[in-house]
Amino acid sequence: MADDGMTMRGWLRQDGRKGIRNLVAVAYLVECAHHVCREIVWPMREEGVQLIGFPGCFPNAYGQRMLQALCTHPNVGAVLLVSLGCESFNKYQLERVVEASGRPVRTITIQNTGGTRSSIEEGRAWVAEQRALLDASPTVPMGIDELVIGTVCGGSDGTSGITGNPAAGLAFDRLVAAGATCIFEETGELIGCEHIMAARAATPELGGILEASVAKAARYYATLGYGSFAPGNADGGLSTIEEKSMGAYAKSGRSAISGLIKPGDLPPKGGLYLLDVVPDGEVRFGFPNINDNSEITELIACGSHAVLFVTGRGSVVGSAIAPVLKICANPETYRRMSDDMDVDAGRILDGKATLAEVAQEILDLLVAFGRGQPSRSEALGHQEFVLGYKSFEPIGPACLPTR
Amino acid sequence: MHRWLSLVVRKRQAGTESRVTPTNPHLLLLDETDNVLLATRAIAAGTPVTIEGHPIILGTELALGHKVARRPIAAGEAVLKYGVTIGVASKPIDLGEHVHIHNIVSNYTRTHTIEAETDHG
Predict the structure, then answer these.
(1) I need a labelling partner for A273 at 20 to 30 A (CA). Which of A384, B16, B58, B97 fits?
(2) How far does the CA of residue B51 sit from the closest CA of chain A (Å)?
């Protein structure tokens, strides 16, 4: 962007991407190493040291790919891996991937390090060293066109689809017009919108792929017996999944859809992408996304520098690795929970702001985050992280027709 | 989809509460083809409102974001919001009646709810 008012500061990584944060990620490779990791992180949790990890002891290609993508995310500057020692996770491959990305990486194996206490001590010492190095590392200018922004909604109600989600969609339109990359997701919350969405695809073939991804989600949820619909959605006035979907769909804005990606895929260039979060094949491992944070984690694994989170009922979550920008759709909720909210989109209902004004506020806040301002959830210490089992087939060339 | 969005924007920018004049200003019509209206603020039970020129006394409280029937809807008829089908009436719905999970169903997957025990005290 030529406009100096829109310039941010980023940390340049070896692959050319820039981060708006410069974090040390500490990753447990099985739940058995979670406590040690948490103890390593805890004293430095407000100083850019964050906890992520994979809980399972059984191998999973998706889990491996997700941690590889997250440990090489542009917001991450150094990585500590903590293994118990006997789990199935391929820590050697993960370490090689992080090393090849030019980031400092260290693996602590608890069974070889004398157990809990000495692993925590060793981990804290390494992390403190890396933190000091990262704090001294230089920044470079970063433009809006270099941003990757995801969007999610959670705790939706009858206001989400008329204030917060259309405002996020309008912000997406402006980001895409400026050359940025935007990702929307949750095909299970696009049920009922598949045909109008397909009409926006860059090619008819991609349109068919978008429709098929929603049909897959509908089948998956039908097998499980529950839609992506929580009791709070109904309390807030939403009656059916397709009603919720129409509101959620508004987050995608009006830009042409450039492609479909899956968790861990990086969009090849600027534009709008649908992230297909529902696993391929038979229904396995349970619900596609057990909560909002598992969706946020996937958006971040696709390179999102920040995530727009539209809520009606009032979510408080943030995330590890990338700031979450909370857009409150419901004016009553905002009055109750304003400390947790970055944007009050409910003003649209009260006639105190237009969609365009709220969209601009969202863009201005993203730029502020890119200059170092913390989001509300970051300032409150939220660093939620959820990752579980899934299985995906790789995307085909028709998924990215404009590549 | 974008028809309703531009409609909302236009109404907002006009800064008036005029939309279909005979309808209560706190009941928002998102698309001309819709058979439901959306409450833009909580409206208490017993409140007299006007819908499409018909005077109605609200039978139940209408919370922010909830829907009310803009016209009578027959059982099995599609419920339209944003100009698209959001479900089907599971029983006949009167003009001005709350439209929600007790009288509409999804064409896709069922809607799961729980009893709010704390609200019963």
Answers:
(1) A384
(2) 19
CA atoms within 13 A on the CB side of A341: 24
Chain A contact set for B12 (CB, 8 A): 348, 351, 354-355
Tell me the C-alpha distance between A295 and A387, whole Å. 9
Q: How far apart are CA A255 and CA A245, in angstroms?
A: 18
CA distance A302 to A280: 18
Reported as a single tens digit per residue, the pLDDT across A232-267 is: 889 989 999 889 998 899 999 999 999 999 999 999
pLDDT, tens digit, 9 for 90 and up, residues A312-338: 999 999 999 999 999 999 999 999 999
The DSSP bridge pattern shows strands B27-28 and A343-344 to be: unpaired
CA distance A362 to A168: 7
Asked if A206 and A274 touch (Cβ cutoff 8 Å), the reply is: no
Nearest to A207 by CA among A73, A401, A71: A401
What would the two tokens of residue A126 be? 């390494």
The letter for the amino acid at A137 is S
Query: What is the H or E stretch that residue B51 is in?
Result: strand B48-51
* pTM of the predicted protein model: 0.91
